[in-house]
Task: structure prediction
Amino acid sequence: MIVDDSIYMRSLIKTTLVGAGFDVVGEAENGERAIDLAIELQPDLITLDNILPDMMGFEILKVLKDEGVESIVIMVSAVGQQTVVNKGLSLGAAEYIVKPFTEEDLLSVVNRVMG
Amino acid sequence: MIEHLNENELKVATKLIFDGLSMAKSSMEQILKSPISIEKIEYDGNDLGVKRFFNEKEGNVHLIKTELMGDLKGTSHLIFSETEVSHLYKACLPDSIILDDSNESKLMKMGFLSEIDNMVAAAVITEFSNFLGIEIYGKVPSLKVLEATEVNEYLADESKGYDSVVHFKAVFHGKELDISPDFVWVFQNKFVDKIKDLVSVG
Result:
């Protein structure tokens, strides 16, 4: 499942994942939709932007944990301060990818966490 | 803003802006998959006006605004002319999207520009955040298409409420890219205070 406010970025991530043989089961453009979809779909993996129109990715991580969603979460964000990356990882994200990234970067991380 | 700093403080501010834009340049290189350079950086503490947009021949411009949240309030504006936007599309998007006028393709093009701003602004924000030891983030960018002659009035309105203005412009240049976006930042005075604190400490 892909969470990003930008249709361009969702399309880029989706094309990369589908091209590598993954099924993208859902997309969300804001935090509220992301939480609803994650609870409903329980996807194996969520790529999660950190800055969304209605909330931050950090807040979504906390809600998903409270709701018992066990999906692996990779944060994908342009926000790259080390303190922010560390905060994402400490809240349960498996990895944190800083935009911009290459297709190879994304697939390498996805394959590693899904392995 | 720059005029309110002494020589040492000005050096620190200049280095900070240069390092931030260098990070932005790296982000642009990754997006374009092509080496680019920063041809020049201009900054001005007084004049918020973007000179090229006093000329109505520029036509429409695309202004992407990112508001800061966190320890430092401010706004960044990345501004491309219509021609520059066309160059960016040609360098990065497939013809199937560039030539298509459907709503989805329009959203893709707007999303692409917003992502460029998102990454370029975030690169500068990250540098400022690390250097100044503060926690700042950019909110979701918003895109406005304005007449060139409306840009300076828009920026003047945007800067109301801020007591400190930093205006810097980067000219990026590359093989597949020949653009010179204006990158206008407006900060509250805390930005200047932080630099003064850093210099006085060490």
